[in-house]
Specification:
It is a single chain. This protein has 99 residues and is an all-beta fold. 0% of the residues lie in helices and 52% in strands. It has strands spanning 8-13, 17-18, 37-52, 55-60, 66-68, 74-91. Strands 1, 2, 3, 4, 5 and 6 form a six-stranded antiparallel beta sheet that branches. A hairpin with a 2-residue loop joins β3 (37-52) and β4.
Length: 99
């Protein structure tokens, strides 16, 4: 899947990272919480996005965000100089009924 499902709302964005500031925790196996989707946005350069279950590897380039499913184990690695950020999404809360 290379797009987010409908009905999700962005709720947080990381700082911008580069090959030197990309946190070590993102470069080893990690996963999003239950119900949390993420989009990896590459602004410049190339980023290796490795999904660990089921196993697949993708090189992300500017304009081709990587979709991370809830609880999906994955890791990323710079492929040379890179700039990126990650956006997190969840289902919008249901509106409260009016009395």
């Amino acid at each position: 899947m290379d797009t987010l499902p409908e009905g999700l709302t962005a709720y947080r964005r990381t700082a911008e990272f580069n090959q030197d500031t990309l946190p070590a925790g993102l470069q080893k196996e990690h996963r999003t919480k239950a119900g949390t989707w993420a989009l990896i946005h590459v602004l410049e350069g190339r980023l290796l996005y490795r999904i660990l279950d089921p196993i697949s590897e993708t090189i992300l380039l500017p304009g081709t965000p990587g979709v991370v499913r809830p609880e999906q184990p994955h890791e990323v690695h710079p492929d040379g100089p890179v700039r990126l950020y990650v956006e997190f999404y969840a289902e919008a809360p249901a509106a409260a009924p009016h009395d």
